[in-house]
Specification:
Blueprint: H1 25-28
Length: about 60
Amino acid sequence: MTVVPAPVTLTKQTESSPFRFAKVSRESGIDFVHFSGMTGDKYFPGQCFGRGALRLRRRS
């Protein structure tokens, strides 16, 4: 059985949204610094994986 998702129809928003967002992190005492994790080090996980295949059989 194949599930085919219903097509999505996008419509243009005609009204403004009732939701308004404000930056309140500084006033709330939250000090957030984003760090992407990128460094000059280069890690290659390719050596962690062995070659081959795994076949699982389920017996009923």
